Amino acid sequence: MRALVPPGGLDDTSLAEAYRPPSGRFVRANFVHALDGATSVDGASAGLGSDADQRVFTVLRAWCDAVLVGHGTAAAEDYGPLEADSDVGRLRTELGRPATAPVVVVSRRASLSPGDRLAVPGTWLVTCAASDAERRTALTGAGVRVLVAGDEDVDLPAALDALAGEGIEHVLCEGGPSLFRDAVAAGVVDELCLTTAPLLTGGAHGVLGGEALPGPVRARLVQLLEEDGVLLARYALSRAA
C-alpha cells in the first residue's frame, strides 16, 4: 500500500501511525462505498471489502475509545462486542491501548433487545426519552449502559458530551448512512475515512440508476490525479458481469 498524499510506502507500523488520532475530543467516521456510491452489497458492506480496507478498519478500531453504530447497521452486519483475542484486540495491545473498547448503539426506539449479541456488559445504548422505558430497564439489567439523550429523538451532541465525560473521547462512527448524515448535520464529525471499492453494483441512487446489477462488476484503477483535494480517477471496467 502506498500513500498518494503524502506520498510514500506504508508498512503495518507506519499505517497505524498514519491514522493516529489527535488528543482530546475527536469523532471519526469510516465508510466503504462502490464507484457508483453504493454502501452495501445484498444489504451488507462486507461485499465491498478488501484486504486493504480490512487493514485500515483494524487500525481505526484499534485507536478508538468506542465504536458508534446505528442499530439497523449493527443488526444487518451482525455486530458483536470487540474481543481482546482478535486482530483488533491484539493491535490495540501493541499500541498500548486497552485490549477492548465498547460498542455504542444508537437507537431512537431502544431497539436493542436482551439476548442480542450486543446486549452484554460493556455495550452502551444511546436512545431518547420517548423510547420504551421498560426495555431500557431490561437492558440495564443485562449490563448495558443506557444513555438517554434527547426527548423525541437522539441528541447526538449531548450524547457525545456525556460519553466524553465517561472518558470516551475518540469515537469511531461506522454508520449506517442515516446515523452518519445526522452526525454531519449536527456538526459533530471531525474526519471521514472513505474507502472506494473498485466495483459497480447498480441501484436507484448511484451513477448507474435503476435496478441493481446481477452481480458487482469489478474495475481496475489505471490513473489517479489530485488537485486541491479533488480526486480524478480512471478505471478500466471488466466486460463480464
From TrEMBL:
GO biological process: riboflavin biosynthetic process
Domain of life: Bacteria
Name of the protein this chain belongs to: Pyrimidine reductase, riboflavin biosynthesis
GO MF term set: 5-amino-6-(5-phosphoribosylamino)uracil reductase activity
Keywords of the record: NADP, Oxidoreductase
Listed Pfam families: RibD_C
Biochemical pathway: Cofactor biosynthesis; riboflavin biosynthesis
Gene3D superfamilies recorded: Dihydrofolate Reductase, subunit A
Organism: Klenkia brasiliensis
Annotated ranges, domain Bacterial bifunctional deaminase-reductase C-terminal: 25-223
